[in-house]
Amino acid sequence: MKKICLIGGSGILGKFFAKKLSKNCELHVADIGLKNSKNKKLNTYYLDLNDEKSIDEFFYKTKKKPFDVLINNAAYTTEMAIKNNLSKNIFSTDVFNQTIDVNLKGIFFCCKSFIKYHHKKKIDQRVINIGTMYAVHSPHHDIYKGENFFSSISYSVSKAGIIGMTNWLATKYAKENTNFNIVSPAGVINKQNKTFIKKYSQLIPKKKMATPNQIYSAIEFLISKDANYVVGQNLYVDGGFTSW
Predict the structure, then answer these.
(1) What is the pLDDT of residues 146-166, one digit of tens each?
(2) Are strands 69-72 and 125-130 parallel, antiparallel or unpaired?
(3) How would you write the chain as a 3-class SS string?
(4) Which of 115, 124, 195, 238 gets the highest tally of CB atoms within 10 A of its CB?
């Protein structure tokens, strides 16, 4: 049975990934929105990605049986910034710093500690970083007008950094049997209003937003035995958006 670590398990995608993964593996889920809890198949942990020391301790304490798979799904979004009463200003320094700290530095710390404590050359291991189609392709800003959320410059910048980091790690550790890849989703349907869904869907060749299961299908593939020759790839699950 695979031992999988999912970083970021309290959001819409994280909850769905955890539900699917816990059916067939020993799952360890860590997130700032979770509490410490353990059972045979599902273990949850409180983890703040702003705290490098705590991240290092988490990976150290779970090293007895190394993780086969690490999925870095945690992210600081504009919805979180607004919820935390931070500015809606697209050039907010506070939002930029917090986004980089979680989405880029936090994931860097997780990869660093995974390699330090869990990386084993004789084990077929996978690391999947969750990106976004907006890391390389700009959002259409007009569709966010009048909404209570937006696509921030800091989110795109942080996820663009994930691409460079993943490629570097992929080429460094491929020969040591650990494959690094990225899954870059389109927007996932999540109680958005009908007007926004219509505007967004018009930009997607599939003419609809993604479902959590469609994003999970890429993860399922990348952790499968047959994906052991897939290295350093950015797998877009975006309904064709990046093909325009």
Answers:
(1) 888 888 899 999 999 999 999
(2) parallel
(3) CCEEEEECCCCHHHHHHHHHHCCCCEEEEEECCCCCECCCCEEEEECCCCCHHHHHHHHHHCCCCCCCEEEECCCCCHHHHHHCCCCCCCCCHHHHHHHHHHHHHHHHHHHHHHHHHCCCCCCCEEEEEECCHHHCCCCCHHHHCCCCCCCCHHHHHHHHHHHHHHHHHHHHHHHHCEEEEEEEECCECCCCCHHHHHHHHCCCCCCCCECHHHHHHHHHHHCCHHHCCCCCCEEEECCCHHHC
(4) 238
According to DSSP, residue 189 is labeled P
Decide if 179 contacts 125 (C-beta within 8 A): yes
Which residue is listed with tokens 């980091």? 165
* Of the listed ranges 5-9, 20-24, 48-52, 78-82, the one predicted with least confidence: 78-82
Q: How many residues does the chain have?
A: 244
Taking the C-alpha atoms of residue 190 and residue 30, their distance in angstroms, rounded to an integer, is 22
Please give the C-alpha separations between residue 3 and each of 21, 71, 96, 111, in angstroms, as whole numbers.
Answer: 10, 11, 34, 16
Note whether 169 and 106 are within 8 A (CB): no
- Token representation of residue 150: 């937006």
Tell me, what's the pLDDT at 86? 61
Assess contact for 169 and 108: CB atoms under 8 A: no
Helices (H), 105-152: 107-117
What would the pLDDT profile of 84-134 be if each residue is shown by its tens digit?
Answer: 666 667 788 988 999 999 999 999 999 999 999 999 999 999 999 999 999
Q: Token digits for 116?
A: 């330090």
